[in-house]
Write a structure and sequence with these properties.
The complex is a heterodimer.
Chain A lengths: L1 H9 L7 H18 L7 H27 L8 E6 L6 H12 L3 E6 L3 E6 L6 H15 L12
Antiparallel strand pairs in A: 1-3, 2-3
Helix pairs in contact in A: 3-5, 4-5
Chain B lengths: L2 H26 L3 H25 L4 H31 L8
Helix pairs in contact in B: 1-2, 2-3
The chains are: A mainly alpha, B mainly alpha.
Amino acid sequence: MLFALMWWVLTDGAMDSWLVGAPVVLFATLVSVMLLPPFSWSLTGIVRFVPFFLWRSLHGGVDVARRALHPRLPISPGMVNYRWRLPPGLPRVVMANTVSLLPGTLSAELHKEYLRVHVLNRREDFLSELEKVEQRVAAMFALSLPPSGGGK
Amino acid sequence: MTPGDYLAVALLIVGGVFFLAGTAGLLRFPDVYTRLHALTKADNVGLGLVVAGLALQAESWAVAGKLLLIWLLVLLAGASVAHLVAQAARQRGIKLWKR
């Protein structure tokens, strides 16, 4: 479905292109099923993730742009460890990539037990932000997290 | 010009400002980690606004979809590459700059 939509977009909906498109879509689906282990996901989780992500990443861009243009360069970077509550695999990768696009955080290392995050400003409350992100990512994959927060 | 045109122009200009800020960050920030912050986040928003501006002017849904697809791929690539660069920097023992 997703690949068929992508093909339609790429070919401007040209009908005759489906002669090539149909096998390609089928092949792409097959390969993706082979490469990607099956995982559970929740449509409402994804739908609710999109506005959250757009808003927070816009915030992230504005925040870093302001700091970059500010005459005194108001940053005080540091490195923190965030203990995973998500299971290994795709959910962690999604979280790491999301974290990199949100305000003031950049995932530097995917460790077995924690995510190492570089923060642009140590004084900010990045911990509750990370917990929120993890919650949202978990919702997308229809997972429930242990209640105790990640912590350092 | 229609109101839609004005909105598109505004989005493109503001998008450009974000690219400018991202580049300023790349030049002004003190170490590799902080520079990655500037590149990934500012350019992601900049490109998002440029894509939104261009999508308003797109002739068909397919073109708008193509633009959206480009943005999503750049997001994915940008975040992944930033992570890989940061990880490589750590493995080489590059110290982070502290105030």
